[in-house]
Amino acid sequence: MTPVHFSFSSAFTLGLMGLAFHRTHLLSALLCLEGMMLSLFIALALWAMQFESTAFSTAPMLLLAFSACEASAGLALLVATARTHGTDRLQNLNLLQC
């Protein structure tokens, strides 16, 4: 495994571990998701450049578009929960209490 592949796989793993173990605020969960998407985007872009094919060149841009949509939906949920509950702490959010 090259150092570049190790750094991107470790960045993805750290983002996943942060999402799994540090779930106090919704904003920190969104930041972990964005870090994971950024590492996936860079790894996919390097993979497309390594194969030197035009067929793989659209995949990183498609992932980046989906990542932007995910970020906007996450921020909309963050604003909605902050307005209704007064905080973004995940312990205060109960889905059974609608």
Essential attributes:
about 100 residues, mainly alpha, Helix Hairpins, 3 helices, respiratory chain
Shape: elongated
Number of helices: 3
Residues in helix, %: over 70%
Largest sheet: none
Using only C-alpha atoms, the radius of gyration works out to: 17 Å
Q: What is the second-level CATH architecture? A: Orthogonal Bundle
Order of helices and strands: HHH
Low-confidence stretches: none
Q: What count of domains describes the coordinates? A: 1
The first-level CATH class is given as Mainly Alpha
Average pLDDT over all residues: 86
Termini separation = 48 Å
Please state the structural category.
mainly alpha
The proportion of residues in beta strands is under 5%
Number of strands: 0
Query: Any idea of the CATH topology?
Result: Helix Hairpins
Enzyme class: translocase
Keywords: Electron transport, Membrane, Mitochondrion, Mitochondrion inner membrane, NAD, Respiratory chain, Translocase, Transmembrane, Transmembrane helix, Transport, Ubiquinone
Organism: Troglonectes longibarbatus
Protein name: NADH-ubiquinone oxidoreductase chain 4L
